[in-house]
Structure formats: C-alpha cells, structure tokens
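Please go through the sequence line and token line underneath and see whether the fold suits the sequence. See right below:
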Amino acid sequence: MPDLNFCGSTLAVVAATPATIDVAGFAQLSWAATIPSLVDISELGDTSQDIPIPYLNGRTSHVNGAVDGGEVNITYAWDTSESGQVILRNNQNNNVQLSFRVTDPDGRVSYFSGVVANIRDLARNTGNYKGQTAVIRVRTPTIRT
C-alpha cells in the first residue's frame, strides 16, 4: 500500500521564475532555500470557473471557464536562520514573483510560482508556539511530477 500521508513534506522557495513553466524549467532553478519548520500547506492545484448555460428546455449545462491557482496558505514556526523564511518576509506584499517546490514523502513534487502576501504572526497565547502564516497567490499552473 502506498504512503497515504503528507508527514515529511517540504517546501522550498527561490526568488526567481523558470524559463519555461514545466518540470524542466522549474527543475533548473536553484532550490537552496527551504522552510524546514513548516507546519501546514493548504490545498494545491487549479480550479476552474463554472460557467452555467441555462437552456430554455429547462436543463442547465456547465462548462469550465477561467482557471485559477488561487491562494496557498502556509504556516511555519518562527526561525530567523531559515533562508526560506527570509525570502518570504523580504518579498511580502511587493508583487515579486517567487517559485515554490513542494516535495512529498513519496517523492512527488509540485511546482508553482506566485507572490507572497499577508504574513502574520500567530496568536499570542499560552497554548501556542511562535509562528507565522503567509499567503501565496498563485500565478502559474501547478506542475506535478
């Protein structure tokens, strides 16, 4: 039976975009910056807009419209020594496009590019760790190996 959990998934970030939006283009980037203190990565992948066609015969048909990678939310424990966190914080809310690589424990890789927004500290309370959340607004398709 295959590994069915995401424990051990990693996130790498680079302040560059690939020459081509495919596996080869993303693989050529220098993926030195990681975020090993990662706690959570939200859903990845494109969604398409639903375009309903309400026919006069009383039946509605649906077609797929514009495709959107949406937003990927991440949570991580605070660590100023992590180069990936430094890249995120230095590029929040400035519209500089970064590239991201998610590697799952089974070796599956997902690539995408986007801009970072809304880095926020986690709630300060006695039951929480020092961490941050960030939003990545996806600008490319999610490319999977």
Strands lie at 10-14, 33-34, 38-41, 47-54, 60-68, 71-77, 98-103, 109-121, 131-138, 143-144.
